[in-house]
TrEMBL record:
Its EC number is 1.1.1.34. InterPro entries: HMG-CoA (IPR057868), HMG_CoA_Rdtase (IPR002202), HMG_CoA_Rdtase_cat_sf (IPR023074), HMG_CoA_Rdtase_CS (IPR023076), HMG_CoA_Rdtase_eu_arc (IPR004554), HMG_CoA_Rdtase_NAD(P)-bd_sf (IPR009023), HMG_CoA_Rdtase_sub-bd_dom_sf (IPR009029). It comes from Spirosoma fluviale. The keyword Oxidoreductase applies. It comes from the Bacteria. This is hydroxymethylglutaryl-CoA reductase (NADPH). Belongs to the HMG-CoA reductase family. Residues 9-122 form the Hydroxymethylglutaryl-CoA reductase-like domain. GO terms for molecular function: hydroxymethylglutaryl-CoA reductase (NADPH) activity.
Amino acid sequence: MFRLIPQVLLKQLYTRNSLHNTASGFAFSLKNRLADATFTGLSLIRIDGQAYPAEAFQLELDGQAALPVDGISVSHPLAFPLRRSVTVYASAEPLSAGKHLIELTLQTQPFGKITLTVEDELQHERADEPSINAQRVVIPRSTSDDTSPDAVRQRQEFLGQYTQTRPQHLTNYSFDPAVIRGNCEQFVGVAQVPIGLAGPLRINGEHASGDFLIPLATTEGTLVASYNRGMKLLNQCGGVTCTVIDEGMQRAPVFVMHDARAARDLARWVAAHEPHLRAEAEATSRFARLQYITPYQTGRTLFLRFGFTTGDAAGQNMVTKATLAACTYLLQEVKDVAHFYLEANLATDKKPSFINTLQTRGKRVTAEVTIPKDLLVRELQVEPEQLDRHARLGTLGAFMSGTNNNGLHSVNGLAALFIATGQDVACLAESSAAIATSEILPNGDFYGSITLPSLIVGTVGGGTSLPTQQECLSILGCSGSGKVYKFAEIVAGVVAAGELSLAAAISSLDWVSSHESARQSTPSSQ
């Protein structure tokens, strides 16, 4: 990965508007936005063509003690992991006001020798004006260990002093804050969401087979009861049949060429060099596997939609890293790219879209059931014809409103499961898409199905390893590797239960009465 780094990417290492004078010279900042690396030496630094010796510079990483650059070598490297920032301090004459050309030649691993050339304008503050940073309220943060008991306590005290409140439930938690590293910055406490238990739900899947208790995290009254009612009916039918149909996670970089013909030629180049791009992308991960690169061209702009499988992880970060590696290779080989961005909305990350209804994002999974007519009438007080007619009218209403869903409330069960099991809740924007179908069979029984075309879930990574969330995944038998298909089938079955229950409630006029009953049973806060 990153055997050669194009200048268009190298420039992103430099932090814009960071150049400023100091009491002993000047300084600027770099940030690793590519991949984990080590810094093994500084070969050259020039400002406006003037060379400076390495001994004139020191590096300060994230507020740690400054290190002399000439003491860093292959035998004494400096770790420079992804997202790490470093301030470069020079002992030299201050720079004049205006723009300056900065040229750096660095020795690194695994990038080798890289040369960075950027232009930045000297930042300054007037002596008679207070510093903006001096006026700014800053939440306490530790650069060495921000989840240590002392760091968390300082933030909690700051919170109480700044807001004149004394939180008790917010700051009361049962786990070591160290476990949330990589999941939450500036940790101060937890949101305690009630979790209700529904089921058991019988799933007849290829990966999930059996009866499952379902933990649902929600503050919406009647939600757990409604899903429980749907599960009861599904069980009486012998369970719900769930099938994972497809999977994929995308990243869609964009390239602006000099004209439309060049953009067309780039698309052809990509098709011819797909094996090379695949090799670069897959070298970044043990799990990311490139399935396709689909071009979409408008004028001189070319989008490339990279589609991957990502194992048991939801995989957004994984495919971002893999796609960047492939694009790095492309940018090194293709010289006439005018502009490049790693994403420009065609992957529709955390946004509903029609493209994901047709081309899977996450998991495409279907849940289906056949309900005998007598059972439907006895248990839910509706005729099959009532449900089927309501479904057709719902499809018409969805078409008229332009929604991504012709079902009723897939996002209700999804949100409750996502919170309980540590999924990325923002992915509900995509995952809520649903395609519901129904029909009356020749014998009068009711057949219904619901397909989730962009269900973004994982059983490893993200928030799935947090204590409560891991326990909820374990309740489902879905914690850890090799379980994501099983989990996807369970999720689809839960959604089917909720759709069936609400559809029956609306058709039988139980919808309002059930919510009113829940409202009246809720203790008054007045």
